[in-house]
Amino acid sequence: MVLGARRLDRLRPIAAECGGKALELDVTDPASVAAFVAEVGDCQVLVNNAGGALGLRPISDADVDEWRRMYETNVLGTVRMTRALLPGLDAAGGHVVVVGSIAGTEVYPGGAGYTAAKHAEDALARTLRLELLGRPVRVSQVMPGLVNTEFSLVRLGSQEAADRVYQGMTPLTADDIADVIGYVVTRPPHVCIDTVRVLPLDQATALQVHRRPESAE
Ligand code: 8X3
Predict the structure, then answer these.
(1) Residue 43 confidence (pLDDT)
(2) Ligand 1 pocket check for 74: Cβ under 6 Å
């Protein structure tokens, strides 16, 4: 198992836990992708997990740099990694997993930069499946709803704002999503799980979330 991310200090303990190798990787940087891929060797499963949202500005106030960074990470990062590892995946009878979002099937005011990027990632995953028809490579997309990671901290810029996103409800955890990915990639070779939408029980759509009143201390 080879794990790639920008923050090696975060990655190393996880790699140690699962007996993998931790390597620095910035999917927005072609040189970083090339250096990472050169270290990978045979690849049977590629999980494109890098992504994220920046801000909640309406289109009338769009920050084009934020849009560009979201597109670079969510969409072009997935393109770079998939293109680079596809020959090996094809030879090995491999599996490409794209971690999209329910934002790839929804729109909401203030979310256009992120939903546009996730819609593009959805189009990418579906197109790849068409292009690889007849080849021994499975393509699966996992689309989570609210997962309590650093996602909202990065998007909103403060811990207080991030905490409000998950207030009064029980969000998914990173482990819940890893569990789904583990299930998807361990089916028999002729079974391709196309798309999985995974939401917390307390969420119906990106904006429709059931919240319980905070209990009095
Ligand atoms: C984010 C999912 O529920 O915040 O990828 O729109 S949600």
Answers:
(1) 94
(2) no
Q: Is the CB of 152 under 6 A from ligand 1?
A: no
3-state secondary structure of 142: strand
- Cβ of 49 below 6 Å from ligand 1: no
Residue with tokens 């597109």: 71
Residues 50, 140: one domain? yes
114 a catalytic residue: yes
pLDDT band at 216 (very low <50, low <70, confident <90, very high): low
191: CATH: 3.40.50.720
pTM over 0.85, yes/no:
yes
The answer to whether residue 58 scores a pLDDT higher than 70 is yes
Query: Tokens 């849009």 map to which residue?
Result: 67
Decide: residue 38, CB within 10 A, 0-12 exposed, 13-18 middle, 19+ buried: exposed
CA of 53 to the centre of ligand 1 (A): 9
Segments forming the whole domain that contains residue 100: 44-216
Residue 9 sits in the same domain as residue 57 = no
